Every structure is written in C-alpha cells, then in structure tokens.
C-alpha cells in the first residue's frame, strides 16, 4: 500500500467514475466477483450504505488491504452522500469516514470545496453491536391498548353504568343488529376464503406456477461448513438486493466456473437452511449419470428477466407450498431435446421450450434427454 500510494498519480474526481483498473494491482477471481458486487450495490446508495460501513469494519479498502479501482468508483458515489452528514453521523458511519479520508488523500484529487472535512476531535462512543430485545411473552394482556371497537364498547358500558339503569329497548335493538351484521360478514368472508382455496386447488400443477428467472452470480465461495456446497451471491432483480444461494456443485464445477456468470434460477422454492446458511433459490442445471451442466441463458439477458415454458407464461406462486407438491409434479417432465434445448414434455401435446419474451431458447452444453432441475 505504501509503495503504491507513493507512486500513484491521483485521479481527478471527474475521472473517478471511470477508473482504469490497470493502474491498480491485478485481482484474483474472488476479488473480481466482490468488485462486481460493490459496483452494483453502490448504484443503490444510500439504500445499501450501511453494508459498505459493515464491510469496511474489517478491511482497509473495498477489496481488502490493497486499493483497487472499486475504491475510486465507489468513493465517487459515496462522497456526495457523506458530505451531508454531521458529527451526529460519525458513530454510525465511522468506517466509511475513515476510508473516505484515506482515499481522498491518496487516490483521488478532490477540490478543496468538495473535500470531506472530518472533525477528528469529535468523541465517538465505543462501537457496540445492538441486540434485539425479546418481547416479554408473559406481559399481561391488560397492558395492550384497546382496539377501537373495544374502546367504543367500554365507553358505551361506562355511560350506561353512570346512568344507573339497564339499556333501553332502542339500544338493545341496535346492539342486536350490529351483532347480526358482524356475524353475517364473518360468514361471508369464510365462504369467500373457502371458495378461493377450492379454486386454487382446482388448478392442476403446471410450470406457470414456478418462478423461473435470470440470475447473475456476482460472487461464489466455498461453504465454510460443507465440503460439497458453494455459496453464491446472486442478483435476481429483487428490489431488496442480491440473494444468497447454496448449490451442491463442488463435485461438478471448479469455483471459478461460478464467478460472474448468468444462470437460470428457480426463485420461489421455500427457503431452506443448509449447514447454517439460508438459501433462497436454486440454480437450474441439466444432468445425466456422468455429468452436470448449467442451463445457459441466451445473450442479452439481464438479472430478473422472466423465463417460462411456451404456453405457460402465467403468474408464478409467490412461494411454492411444499404440501401441494407442485415442483415434484412438474419437474420430472423437464428435459432437453436433440438440439440441447430445455423442454417441458406433455403427454399427447407438443414439447414446450423454455424461453423468454424475445422467444429465445435456453440450452445445456452437451446432454440430450437431460434431467433438468
């Protein structure tokens, strides 16, 4: 770091967004994936600014202990946000502020009127990880605030008690009408729910209920506690950010084969925890008795693009209900044809190809009649 800082010619702030990676030390595959992840996340600042602070807690720069083009690009996107912070924000973003001060003094030439001036004399409390307090399950029910209905009933009873007599006939009639109306509404709601449930159950399992979509693997690493699993950070087009996906592909692909590549995801399977890590999707592959191959998307796709079988471009379930066995019912009919295209085989009907809104096909590399899952 000292040698690089001494010889590095600072970039101007205007040049920072398009920093030349060749001016920095070369990156390994894992660092390239991490760089890609931060270049994506930084476009969503300030939404993901806290993730940057957490990441810098244990590293000097974005990718570790050496500077990279990622530091310069992310710095240019962070500076306008940090310039609005006051000393009250120092505790929340202390690691970002330390990093900004380092970058603007070594890597980026920032004009004096734009340079972030940090008051290092401000006392910042010791950093403590907050623990969520458990709700007291034994809290007395009486402590809960009364609902609007309860409050009104209470006021009515109080008024009657103050008058010192029983409710008159008109009041009793009104109460009976309200009770009958509430009972009728409850009955109608129950009937509607039952009808909706019956309608849902009447729809036979089919591929339109499965959420196939394009994903981009930003970074993949070995699972720390499972030799057969990779853990990937995948952009699936979700507003809340990338997903974490565990895949049992260690025996079939080297780690570098999973870095920065497009895949097809099954995105609405019920999340499962695999050796302590929650996995929220599945990477679609084709296989036979000897090998496994990715289902490769066509060129020009982007994360989150919908993928579907011809004739089944419906609205997928938000999360597949394991009790309905939808995946188990349709998956055995997924395969590949002589052209290596992924298909859905239907008895007495033409094969339906896996496709997108452009009508492109999705293929495996070499396996005919593959088991696709």
Polypeptide structure, described:
The chain is of the alpha+beta class and 373 residues long. The chain has two domains: 1-109, Up-down Bundle (Glutathione S-transferase Yfyf (Class Pi), Chain A, domain 2); 207-372, Nucleic acid-binding proteins (OB fold (Dihydrolipoamide Acetyltransferase, E2P), Beta Barrel), CATH 2.40.50. 30% of the residues lie in helices and 17% in strands. The protein has nine helices and 16 strands. It has helices spanning 2-7, 13-16, 29-41, 49-56, 69-82, 94-106, 148-163, 169-202, 326-330; strands spanning 11-12, 108-109, 212-222, 230-235, 243-247, 261-266, 272-274, 277-279, 282-283, 285-287, 292-294, 306-309, 334-336, 342-344, 352-355, 371-372. The strands form four sheets. Strands 3, 4, 5, 6, 9, 12, 13, 14 and 15 form a nine-stranded antiparallel beta sheet that branches. A three-stranded antiparallel beta sheet has the order 11-10-16, with no helix packed on it. Strand 7 (272-274) and strand 8 (277-279) form a beta hairpin. Helix 5 crosses helix 6. The chain is flat and about 70 Å long. Residues 134-148 and 158-164 have low confidence and may be disordered.
